[in-house]
Every structure is written in C-alpha cells, then in structure tokens.
Amino acid sequence: MTAKEKVNTYRKQAIVVGILFIIATAFLFIGKAFYAPILESPDYLNEAYPNRIMATLGILLEFACVLSIPLIPIVLFPILKKQNETLALSYVVFRFFEAVLFILVEINALLLINVSELFLDNGGADIAYLQSIGHSIQSWNAWGFTFYVIIFTTGALMFYTVLYQSKLVPRFLSVWGFLSAALLLVGSVLALLEVPFTTSASFELIFAMPIAINEMVLAVWLIFKGFNPAVLAASTGTDKREKRPLIAHA
C-alpha cells in the first residue's frame, strides 16, 4: 500500500469512528427520552403496555447505540495498536463487555412491557406479585447500567491515555476526555453507594454530560480533521521510507 493509500485509509477510518461515536452517544440519550417517562414511571404497570410502541422505539434506538459500541474499537485498533498495543486490545475487550451488558439491560427493559401486559390482562389482579417482578427487573437494570458505566469509563480511560500519549488528536481533547471519564467513574461508584445526589437527573447532568459533550466534539474533529497525519506517518514509516526497486549494477 502506498503512502497516499494509507493516508486515505486512515482518513476513512477517522470519519467512520466519528460517525460511530455520534451514534453511540446521541442515540443513548434520544432512546432514553422515548422510553424513560414510560418505563421509569411509578405507574409503569398501567402505562408500559398501552405505550409499548413508544417504549419499544426508544429501546430500538438505544440498540443502534449498542451495535456501534464494539465497532468503535475494532475500527480504531489498527491505528491504536501502533501506539500502544496492550491498551488498544484492552479497549476492544472492555467495549465488548460494555455492549453485552447493555444488551441485557435492553432485554430487561422490554420485559417490563410484558409485565405491564400481564397486569392489564388480569384486570389489576396480583398487583403485589407483578409489582415485585417489575421492581426486581428495574433493580437489576439499575445495577446492570451502573456496572456498564464502570466498564465504559475504564475503557475510556485507556482510550484517552493512548490518544494523549500519541497526540493522534489535540491533547486538550484527550485530557478533557480522560477527566470526564474519571468523573463519570466516580459518579458510578457514588451511585453504587446510593449517595443522594446521584439520582437519575443529577447523575446525567453532573457526571455523564461532560463525557457526552467530549465525545461529540471528538467525533466532529475526527470527521472533519481526522488523526494527526504526522503521528500516523511516523508510526507507519510512510513519511520517508518508500520501497524502491533494486537496480543491479553490471
């Protein structure tokens, strides 16, 4: 592959990663905006099944986010491994774990719709039993999502460490991302300890929003600017070393 072809390949990879970051971040918030008022409502037993189309649409939007999660490190791996192969591989592993946990959370969210259907079909009978099932599902999802966030932030710390070390993107983006991931990790631990101000609304505003904004800015940078060409050239040797045919001397 010539130097020009490699540059074009890296440019395409940067654009794809930028688009995947937008999908993974934006669809998470958009999807939750659809289903959270229904499935997280105190009256979800009465609301979930009648509003199942809206709730299911929100879950499917989040599922698009889940599909993009493991694709990000896969597309990035050929680039990141040249900078730090151990962290690059670890980032792939953590994002796969993250996607698996997220899928389990999505499945459980769909189960709440089924619980609501059973409740309404029985005319509100066995309310205590169905409330217990629903509460168990919601509790599992809360814990599952918290562990998902911990895995996500651990992978993000690895990712931004490689970016900072390599200067593939401006270092202010790497520092911003690293600190935002650390903040979200702290918030997740506090949520596990059930600290009062880590409720859903405040958690998203205080702990999740900085990393979300960072990923959007990083995505835009990758789409329009790409990775630092000097770093890519140095890591591949395409800046000075082009193979030349050997000339035999008589």
* Number of helices in the DSSP assignment: 7
What is the beta-strand fraction? under 5%
Largest sheet, in brief, is:
none
Radius of gyration: 22 Å
Distance between the termini: 31 Å
Structural class: mainly alpha
Count of DSSP E strands? 0
Average of per-residue pLDDT values: 87
Contiguous low-pLDDT stretches (5 residues minimum) are 238-250
Indicate the overall shape. elongated
* Order of SSEs: HHHHHHH
- How many structural units, i.e. domains? 1
Question: Which bin fits the share of residues in helices?
Answer: over 70%
Keyword list:
7 helices, disordered C terminus, mainly alpha, elongated, 250 residues, 82% helix
Overview of this protein structure:
The protein has 250 residues and is mainly alpha-helical. The chain has one domain. The protein is built from 7 helices and no strands. It is elongated and about 70 Å long.
Summary of the model, kept short:
With 250 residues, the protein is mainly α.
Helix and strand arrangement:
Layout: H1 3-39, H2 44-47, H3 52-121, H4 127-166, H5 171-192, H6 200-224, H7 229-236
Helix pairs in contact: 1-3, 1-6, 3-4, 4-5, 5-6
